[in-house]
Amino acid sequence: MRKHGFILLTILLSVQFTFAQGTLPHALTSQEKQLIGNYRSPVVETAYQTPPPNPVRTMAEWEELSGLMITWADYYHILKEIVRYAQEECRVYIVCSDSNQVKAYLLSNDVPINNITFLIEDYNSIWCRDYGPFSIYEEGTDSLFFTDWIYNRPRPDDDVLPAAMANAYNVDLYQMTQPPYDLTATGGNFMTDGLGTGFSSKLILEENPDHTEAEIDDIMYQFMGIDRYIKFETLPYDDIHHIDMHMKLLDEETILVGEYPEGVADGPQIEANLQYLLDNYQTCYGRDWQVVRIPMPPDKYGKYPDEGGAYRTYTNSVFVNKTVIIPTYEEKYDTTAFRIYREALPGYRIVGIPCDDIISLNGAIHCITHELGARNPIFIAHAKIRSATETDASYQVAAVIRTSAGIDSALTYWTTDTTSGFTALKMTYTNNDSFVAQIPAQPAGSEVFYYLTAFASNGKVTSKPLVGARGAWKFTVEGTSEIAARDAARPQSFSILSVYPNPFNEQAVCKFSLPKSSEVNFTLYSIDGRKVKEIGTHYFNAGQQQIRIHGQNLSSGIYLLRVSGQGFSTYRKLVLIK
């Protein structure tokens, strides 16, 4: 990387404002609200202001890390515990003003300082998730770069910390800060599957009024390789509108989603957003999402956010290689959260840090950490085997495996009894970094456990899942009688089961039964037969399914919902009252 040394150009502010290190909240202060309209992101002299020259891929959070960033600005009792756990997995980069003071604090609390790098830099706040750099790889796994955007707070010291991290990490920095690539965003409102799909709330649209949605999508593609950008409606009671406050990707096809009691706080909008995802998008492997629900608990007074309670959440966690650090609050709620995480992520070390005092600022563990990718990672993409039958000759394990150093070999380890160990199968290279193995057929009722391990030419070894045998995937071999019985529950013809509520105000849910997996079209007509709204065509699995009908931009009145597919077409009357 070019020699570090950046110049902050004049920051155009309407009034004078002095930033106190470490004291700024997650949300905008009253003074910052006056400044934000005239804020201009500092220009970093050593950063590139144009997109990377070759296609890039943004790292997913569960991939291998070499470092974890924190800013030693406040809430030291929480930060020290992050350091305690994280330094066992990777190097911890601590942005601070006095490293000796930090060392003394850590040692006095029995936290080792053996795997830490201190960066003596100016800063404004603790919320490094929002302003820290994202790790991107050229051509998927080649050169590691950092990229960042305009921080959506008028905090210039925070805004330039990605440059300091790039210098410490010795990588190039690509910034989305200057026209036509200027993008205002925040890390807590972004997540990715590592394969080109990105997620945000529509805050990303609201904070970039000078860009169309297509322009925003293009910037994200050029700088971060995001070619499918899914955006959700913002939540009424989440003041900062960051999706990490209520959802988290656990892998390419599994999403952890917070759940309130029915009708409470942001529960209705979370459910609508989840249904929007399930109705309109499939995973990067073209399959239905696997959804894990986790409670959103009330605060210590029993109040939820709509009652003025703190925004307690368990989704605001962070992967640090084979450890996952989650926020905790009270044992009666934490016990359930630990169980859910351990079931969803077997083999990972799940540890908790009390966050009751910081959550009142709408932030927890994820908000005050930022992952830094590994150099020359081994990238493994694999669609997990979800089901198998006793009539299958074998169970194919297919994966794309690549690294800049080249892959020497890859193995699939499998077993039906984890206490007896695993059998290794050599994976055969086919083409385009693809590898295949065949797990032998097993009797009906067998549980098959398996995981993948790849060996690079430079000696590096990586498994997927990262924890290897401890977190092996599992599928069950179904018998033909079980399959026949399951198919006989299935409906023999299409039918609409219910549309509720009806009359409706904002949205109604249409529940229906489908005899076989197929595409279904939904169209809304006026009572006199004019097409009013093309809701869309979606693919559904056989069985009972549902879709939400939204009434935005429609006038009160009587409508006809037409539902059609292969071999059927039916109508149901809907009444919209606003």
Q: Could you walk me through the main structural features you see in this protein, from its secondary elements to its overall organization?
A:
The protein has 578 residues and is α+β, with helices and mostly antiparallel strands. The protein folds into 3 domains: 30-373, L-arginine/glycine Amidinotransferase, Chain A; 380-486, Immunoglobulin-like; 491-576, Sandwich (Immunoglobulin-like). It is built from 11 helices and 35 strands. Strands 20, 22, 23, 26, 27 and 28 form a 6-stranded mixed sheet that branches. The chain starts with 29 loop residues before the first helix and ends with a strand.
SSE topology sketch:
Elements lengths: L29 H6 L20 E3 L6 E7 L4 H11 L4 E6 L2 H10 L7 E5 L7 H4 L2 E5 L5 E8 L4 H4 L1 H9 L3 E4 L7 E2 L5 E2 L4 E5 L1 H4 L6 H12 L3 E5 L14 E5 L2 E6 L7 H14 L9 E6 L22 E3 L2 E6 L2 H14 L4 E6 L15 E4 L5 E4 L5 E2 L4 E9 L4 E9 L7 E4 L1 E2 L4 E7 L6 E10 L4 E4 L8 E6 L1 H10 L5 E6 L6 E8 L3 E9 L4 E10 L2 E8 L6 E9 L2 E9 L2
Parallel strand pairs: 2-3, 3-4, 6-7, 6-8, 10-11, 13-14, 16-17, 20-28
Antiparallel strand pairs: 1-5, 2-18, 5-6, 9-10, 12-13, 15-16, 19-21, 21-25, 22-23, 22-26, 24-25, 26-27, 26-28, 29-30, 30-33, 31-32, 31-34, 34-35
